[in-house]
UniProtKB/TrEMBL annotation:
Domain of life the protein comes from: Eukaryota
Record flagged with keyword Transmembrane: no
Protein name as annotated: LRRCT domain-containing protein
Domain LRRCT span(s) in chain numbering: 268-312
Keywords, in A-Z order: Leucine-rich repeat, Repeat, Signal
Signal peptide: 1-21
Upper taxonomic lineage: Eukaryota, Metazoa, Ecdysozoa, Arthropoda, Chelicerata
InterPro entries, A to Z: Cys-rich_flank_reg_C, Leu-rich_rpt, Leu-rich_rpt_typical-subtyp, LRR_dom_sf
Pfam families named in the record: LRR_8 (PF13855), LRRCT (PF01463)
Length: 312
């Protein structure tokens, strides 16, 4: 007998699960202390939860329903029980102002349909155990705000779901991106690492070539751009480097990056001399930033500087 590929089996299981899902919300008393609301989509909001068993009970009584978004807010508990998701399909999971020992008690195999995970001002006391995210095969967006992720390296790249398309780390105390950290994510289209402590970037954090469209490294501590940093990124359209300590941007950093539309360098001590003349060879690029020096150009918008101003 011919066996079906594992991916086909997972797809059929997901379709069956969705087809059997109940429409709308369970009875209000069944999901207390949470609240379910439905407009065109179904949302479950839970606040002030301090016991994992409360969540497990709510989800048991929600069996066969589908929640487009589940929000857990202003809560403190040990973990999210992995098995509470077994009878309920969840598409997005949002945690706001939550304290946990760790995100899940063990890897949540039943969350294979989750496409968005957002953690905002959420502390995991044992740190980020990326292995817990490995079963999230459908995850496309991972967004972490105001937590502690001091570095991203091998542990992240080996365990984070490979179908990720959008990745955000904001105000996460991130200081280091290790070589190869984003190379194993072929669908990654947007990376945003803002309001952090990055002092250095290097080209080998991403594959060569890289086909993503958006990079943001705003509000970091970058002072130099490597000569090859954004080379061979043919689809890159938006680059955000606002509010760093960058004085010069080498032309060689953009070889093979022909579709750039937005170069955002506000809040940097940009030296507007002959080394920056190359920017005017790309009139299609929207440029935002101001000259710090020389004195005669101090405070002038880059888009208002003429080619003859760029002298050494």
């Amino acid at each position: 007998m011919k066996s079906f590929p594992a991916t086909v089996v997972l797809l059929l299981f997901g379709l069956l699960k969705a087809a059997l899902a109940e429409w709308g919300c369970p009875e209000p008393e069944d999901v207390l202390p949470c609240e379910c609301t439905m407009n065109t989509l179904t949302y479950l909001e839970c606040r002030h939860v301090d016991d994992p068993e409360v969540l497990r009970t709510v989800f048991q009584k929600s069996a066969n329903y589908e929640y487009n978004e589940v929000h857990l807010e202003y809560s403190s508990l040990q973990y999210l029980p992995h098995d509470m998701f077994e009878a309920v399909q969840v598409n997005e999971l949002h945690l706001l102002n939550v304290t946990l020992n760790q995100l899940f008690d063990s890897p949540p195999e039943a969350l294979d349909q989750l496409n968005t995970l957002l953690l905002k001002n959420t502390r995991t006391l044992r740190g980020n155990i990326w292995e817990l995210l490995k079963p999230l095969k459908s995850l496309e967006s991972l967004m972490i705000y105001t937590d502690t992720v001091k570095k991203l390296g091998k542990d992240f790249s080996e365990n984070a779901p490979k179908g990720l398309q959008r990745l955000t780390f904001e105000d996460t105390q991130t200081k280091k991106l290790e070589p190869g950290v984003f190379k194993e994510f072929p669908n990654l289209n947007m990376i945003s690492i803002n309001a952090n402590k990055l002092e250095h970037l290097q080209r080998d954090i991403l594959p060569v070539p890289w086909y993503g469209k958006t990079l943001h490294f705003n509000h970091n501590k970058l002072s130099e751009i490597p000569d090859d940093m954004f080379t061979q990124m043919p689809n890159l359209t938006t680059l955000g480097l606002n509010f760093n300590q960058i004085a010069a941007i080498p032309e060689s950093a953009f070889y093979g990056t022909d579709n750039l539309e937005n170069l955002l360098i506000d809040g940097n001590p940009i030296k507007c001399d002959c080394r920056l003349r190359w920017i005017y060879l790309y009139p299609q690029v929207y440029l935002r930033g101001k000259c710090e020096s020389p004195k005669k150009l101090h405070g002038k918008e880059l888009r208002d500087v003429t080619l003859s101003d760029f002298v050494c």
